[in-house]
Each structure stands twice: as C-alpha cells, then as structure tokens.
Amino acid sequence: MTSFDEPARDHGHATSFDERAPDWDTPERRERAEQVAAAVRASVPLRADTRLIDIGAGTGLLGLALLGDVGELVLAEPSGGMLAVARDKIAAVGDGRVSAVRFDLTADPPPGEPFDLAVSMLVLHHVENTPAAMAAIFGLLRPGGWIALADLDTEDGSFHEADTEGIHHHGFDRDALAGLARAAGFVDVGFRTATQVEHESRRFPVFLLVARRP
Ligand SMILES: C[S@@+](CC[C@H](N)C(=O)[O-])C[C@H]1O[C@@H](n2cnc3c(N)ncnc32)[C@H](O)[C@@H]1O
Predict the structure, then answer these.
(1) C-alpha angle 96/121/191, rounded to 5°?
(2) Could you tell me if the CB of 56 is within 6 A of ligand 1?
C-alpha cells in the first residue's frame, strides 16, 4: 500500500518529497490537477495579465494547468527535488512567463511583487499552523487579490499511511477553515467541491476554498 503524498523526514516536508519528485506526475495526479484547475476557472476571475502563484506547487501540476489562463506564473515550493522536476517542465514548455522559486510559506518572505491570485493543492494539511499559513497567504496578495486553495475535507486519518510524517491535519472542517480565513482578513469566503480522490475503495472529497483580500 502506498500513500498519496507522504512527506516529512527532514523539516516537515523536504526529504520524502525530494525522493518522490521524479515519480510524482501520475495520470491520477494530472487528472486531479485538471479538475481543480477547472474549479479555479469557475470560481475566480482570470485575465491575460493575472499574476499567479502556486504555493507548494510540487512539480507544478496545478499552476501549469492554469498557464493558458493567466499572464505570469510562479511555482513556489520548498522541496529541491520537486523544484528540479518543475524546472525541467518549465524548460520543456519554453515559456518565459513561468518561474520556479524555493519557498516555504510560513518561513520565507513573499517571492517578488504581490500576486493577483494564489492557488494551492493538498498543501494546507502539511502546514502545522493554519492561522499562520492564512496570514502568510494574505500577505502574498495585492488588495483585491484572490485565493483558491484545494485540500481534503475532514477525514478519519485513512488518507495517509499511519506512520506518515508531516501530516498535521486530517483534512479540514469547512466552517472552521472559513473562520480562519476571515480572521486572516479575507472576505467573500466560499467553498465548492473541486474533485474527489479514490483510495482503497474510498472516496475523499477535495474542497476549493475561494476568498478575496479586500
Ligand atoms: C501533497 S504535495 C502536493 C504537491 C502539488 N501541489 C500537487 O498537488 O501535485 C504537498 C506539497 O506541499 C509542499 N509543502 C509542505 N510544506 C510546505 C510549506 N510550509 N510551504 C510551502 N509548501 C509546502 C511540499 O513540499 C509538497 O510539494
């Protein structure tokens, strides 16, 4: 039995994601990214000049799925292994509007100018301090900027292996997370179900949290 996204031997994320990066892009994960990208398109305004950051981008599956809808894309990721794969993909795409930066959401300053939109997929449950994560994401945005963050609804812990490290939350309660988003300063907070992940005959819904910095 293999876990979907087990991380964390080093500083809570790096080592395992480094090791898994070369094999990360499975058909299932590509499909999941396309479904979340479709939910993002249906939820937030995207324009030819939108500056987008994909937080915890991994190999860039979600951000690159949205590249045709935006003006500029930054893939922000702390794992060197993931970054190396993302940079290979950027080179293959040959599009100067995309860059990849080493970035830990709760430890590093914003990478460059403020963003119009911040997206993430299955990252929040790896960050222990959710209020700090929300505050850091708020700080990445220009006034009027949007977030579209995908993660698991509350689950019983069976999504990951029992001994998996770096899993700080077994999904999220939507109302509780909405409260944390509002406490960070976000407005127009809403949710939709973006997709679901099948694992050992069980289905785990994946929400998309959408909100705006006033
Ligand atoms: C389950 S993977 C998801 C990767 C990618 N978003 C995807 O869906 O394919 C979780 C990602 O979150 C990243 N991550 C963990 N802690 C982080 C943090 N504090 N700041 C930013 N990214 C983090 C990991 O390095 C990893 O790439």
Answers:
(1) 120
(2) yes
Which residue type, as a one-letter code, is found at position 203? R
**What digits encode the pLDDT tens for the residues 30-50?**
999 999 999 999 999 999 999
Kindly report, residue by residue over 82-103, the tens digit of the pLDDT.
999 999 999 999 999 999 999 9
Query: How many A from CA of 137 to the centre of ligand 1?
Result: 14
Q: Has residue 25 been placed in a domain? A: yes
Q: Is residue 4 part of a domain?
A: no
Write out the residue range of the structural domain in which residue 169 sits: 14-212
Structural domain count of the chain:
1
Strand segments (E) across the chain: 51-55, 72-77, 98-102, 115-121, 141-152, 187-199, 202-212
Stated pTM of the model: 0.93
